[in-house]
Amino acid sequence: MEDKSAQRLLPKHLALIMDGNGRWAKLRGLERSAGHRAGAENVYTIVSECCRLGIGYLTLYAFSSENWNRPKAEIQVLFSLLTDFLKRFLPTLQEQNIRLNALGDLEGLPLPQRAALNHVMHVTAQNSTMVLNLAINYGARQEIVRAVQAIIQEGLSASEITEGVLAAHLYTHGQPDPDLVIRTSGEQRLSNYLLYQSAYSEFYFTPTFWPDFGVAELHAALDDFATRNRRFGKTPEQISATREF
Ligand code: IPE
Ligand code: IPE
Ligand code: MG
Fold first, then answer.
1. Which residue's CA is the nearest one to ligand 2's atom 2?
2. Which of 67, 127, 177, 212 is the catalytic position?
3. Among the atoms of ligand 2, which is closest to the Cα of residue 185?
4. Which domains does the chain carry?
5. Residue 79: closest CA among 109, 102, 104
6. Tens digits of per-residue pLDDT, 10-45?
């Protein structure tokens, strides 16, 4: 495939909401579990392409704090896919020099999933081409509450609490904020994802269901991102002046 990445502005941090597995399956007369399997396959494709392009941080929403409200059998399918994924993907992570990092309440996960995540995080800890954040048992409101609790426990006074201090207590500490958030499946909401970190993110919504969101559509989203004017509160004139000098 033609590599346009050299010319266009890429996000340093790309965050994805991988939605629509169930509807993808339903459309084909399949069980929701088949949609989750197809969705997991697509993760391999997208992670590898992001790494190849030189995106430094990729965050994937794999299981939200609210996904516990789903039927028990579906949750089991998702968790068994997670351990399969980690096992199968580990050689690729090593080969492509990708570091795995989990965002979320790992204590709340079943032991096999927690152990598998901890293992893969441990053995990929020195990898440096890309950080792959897996948001699992993750909710942004819970993340913020947890950060506030930790800050209070550390005994910081009100005047010592800054945006930087709060950011340093989030799961994404030390990482740049997402420049672009992509959500598949036509839904246009955040569903408790990266609320603090996405304050100045660009958003890209596509009706495509996650299992069908391939490399070509990833490139379409990245092309679109490259045309956005990020102003961070400034006027368009101020932005063009900084570009000129
Ligand atoms: C995304 O697909 C996967 C997870 C939320 C774990 P869904 O399972 O939400 O699929 P839809 O939205 O019902 O189609
Ligand atoms: C968001 O998708 C969570 C993940 C993609 C893991 P959902 O399908 O759970 O979101 P809602 O419930 O439709 O907002
Ligand atoms: Mg959904």
1. 19
2. 67
3. 8
4. 13-141+172-244 (3.40.1180.10)
5. 109
6. 999 999 999 999 999 999 999 999 999 999 999 999
